[in-house]
Amino acid sequence: MTRLLVVVGALIALLFPAVSSAQEVSDEAPVRVEVLHDADGWSATFHFPRDAQGWAFPRSNRARRQDTGWRELSWTVATDGVSLQRIDETDVLLADDGGALPQEVTVRFVPFADDLMADYDPALQFTDGTLALFTGHFSVMPWLRDTQEMAEDGPVVEMIFRDADGPLLYQGLPYDSATTRDDSTYVVFGDPQPISTDHLTAIIDPQTPAWLRREMLDFLPQTFAIYADRLGERAGGGKPMVLSSWAGPTPELYSQGGSVLPGLLTVRLEGEGLVNESTQALQGMRWFIAHEGAHFWLGQTVGYETDADAWIMEGGADLLAFRLIERIDPDYDAGTTLANKWQTCLALSVDKPLAGASERRDYDANYACGTVLGMIAEGAAQKNGGRDFFDFIAALVAANREDAGGDGVVSVDDWLGQLVAESGDEELAAQVKAFVYQGTEDPQGDLCAMLARVDRADPGCAAVAH
């Protein structure tokens, strides 16, 4: 997931009565959570299958602006004798007398539509009253009072969402209620007006600045049509969804951000810096949507094995985004941005193998060096008669997608195998592998040499002979 300036949450998906769970299936009866919106406001009633010392919320990240637990700003326990306590960095429901927690607990809440640190927004609020709730924040695990920690496993959590005002949306369709065990999606309340094309469904806040809304309505359909055409249909069925909210013209702020979930892309826009049309804002919006949209294929249709391989997905999504924008807007030139990627990669690669970037928290290396290696792959594809990086990635996706007989994972060996298939150059693949796993004292010299083998060069490679 990528962030631009301010962070963002994630939004909607729908279907009924239940979708696949992000948790392991347990033989124990599930925890049931009934989330209701009615004339009295919002409530969540937890039905626990057994007595426990407490129930903890695994997702208890702090609110970014307030720097405190967000539930204490939003939730009020309505059940007598029960309180919500924050223990270290975990929110926990506990009995006030220190005994077992009742098997039914109700909390009332005001949806918290603000940014969290390293997690999805609990709610996304639209100016027309539409609101989306993130399912994962209702998931719980047994709390062990003696050790002051969560149990290692517990029952699955089944969530039921209802709106007394009418149907709600789950996976893009209206239902009277939605039941799910999926803790990585959003459920939408209200009466939004979705925009639907052959390749996506989108809800764009009606108060989004007119110029930006117009550009999104033009850019989004083209983006997903091109991705589907060049990379094949995304796995998972249905159309991807985009949910874009507008938080208003906050003074002295320019914020474009969002997140990607299975089949769902959210965008959160805020600040006076977006009110008037500008090239910076336009290109920021385009790049964010194009990068995150690429993850529906490179990240979801196929994934990666470990964090050591994150460069395949993040650098790949970067280069796909650049090439897509160039296709849609002939006046766009990614050259300066790609040159910056090159310099960032060089700075983060001296004696540092790319496979260790995530462990070192050199996350920018995954994006920058992944993009540079993508340019090598692109050159190989072009030597083999391809047009651009899309052809390299399309072949990788087609060979490894689970719904076509693959394992659903793109490994470094898979990536290198495709490089050899395109270039016929085993030595090139060995050089890339050494860069990934061993590092180099001279990243510029080594990367320039690799680019030269596919008849490509960065401006910094002038001294390298072809």
UniProtKB/TrEMBL annotation:
InterPro entries: Peptidase_M4/M1_CTD_sf. It comes from the Bacteria. Residues 1-22 form the signal peptide. Keywords: Signal. This is Peptidase M1 membrane alanine aminopeptidase domain-containing protein.
